[in-house]
Amino acid sequence: MGIGYKEGVLRDEFMRLDLHNPLLWAIIQEFAAFSETMFDVDIIITSIFRPVPESSVHAHWRGVDCRSWIYSEEQIELIRLYFDSRWQYDPIRPEISTVIYHEVDNGGLHLHFQSHSRTMAVDRADFQQN
Ligand SMILES: [Zn+2]
Q1: 125 pLDDT exceeds 80?
Q2: How many angstroms does the Cα of residue 52 sit away from the middle of ligand 1?
C-alpha cells in the first residue's frame, strides 16, 4: 500500500530492509500511511542500500531516500514536523533528525530517512494537525 519504487530492484531491497533494520522499515511504512492519509500521494523510494561510501548510513541499511518533488514545500515541512514529533534519531545528539530534506552530490533534493541504534519513538505534543 502506498509505496512506489524508482527502480524494481528497490522493491526487493525494501523487503530485505525489514530484516536488516525493522525500525527504519516501520518508519517508512509510517511515512507511506502519513502521505496517503494527509496528501493522497504514494511515497516513491529512490534509494536504500549503497555500499559506498562506507561512512554513509546507506551502507549500513540505516538510510532510505524518497522522492520529494511530488510534495509542496508546505507538505515537506509538515512531514518534517510530524516525524520529528514521532521519532528521536539519537537522544545523545538531539539535533539530528530521522528525516532530512537535502541534496547530496547534485543528486537532487530528496527526503532522506535514517535511523540509529538509539532511535526511539517519542510522543511530543508539538505536532498539531490543523
Ligand atoms: Zn539518503
Answers
A1: no
A2: 12
